[in-house]
Specification:
This protein is of the alpha/beta class and about 120 residues long. Helix content is about 45%, strand content about 25%. It is built from five helices and seven strands. Helix 1 (about 15-25) packs across helix 5.
């Protein structure tokens, strides 16, 4: 059986590594990008889920989501933010983001949200 492939985009190395390790331990195949331009270079690959921090260098987290939604509409987009607001939640919804994880979060919350998003996407 094929593993779900997840692209994680974030600019905090410790946080990025924690997310990668957590999702790898749950059986996902993960790829990381430390900024938006690096994520855009990966649009030629197929990902089941894109997990992007809303604040990343060189562009906001919505830019990679917009690009992947256009090039790979089956990729499930999720946002992570430490700057929760009505505006960011509304922007996320407008870009088809399926879930919005607020920092700080723990491994269990992350893995549960990812599993739920992938399951929801399969049932559509």
């Amino acid at each position: 059986m094929r593993q779900d492939k997840i692209l994680i985009v974030g600019d905090q190395p410790v946080e990025l590594e924690m997310m990668k390790d957590s999702l790898d331990r749950d059986g996902y195949e993960t790829v990381t990008a430390s900024h938006g331009e690096e994520a855009l270079q990966l649009t030629n690959q197929t990902f089941d889920l894109l997990l992007a921090d809303i604040v990343i260098p060189h562009m906001g987290g919505l830019e990679p989501i917009r690009a992947f939604r256009e090039l790979s509409p089956t990729t499930v987009p999720m946002l992570i933010t430490g700057h929760a607001s009505v505006e960011t939640a509304q922007a996320a919804l407008e870009h088809g983001v399926c879930d919005y994880i607020i920092k700080p979060f723990d491994r269990h919350k992350l893995c549960t949200a990812v599993a739920k998003a992938l399951k929801r996407n399969r049932s559509v």
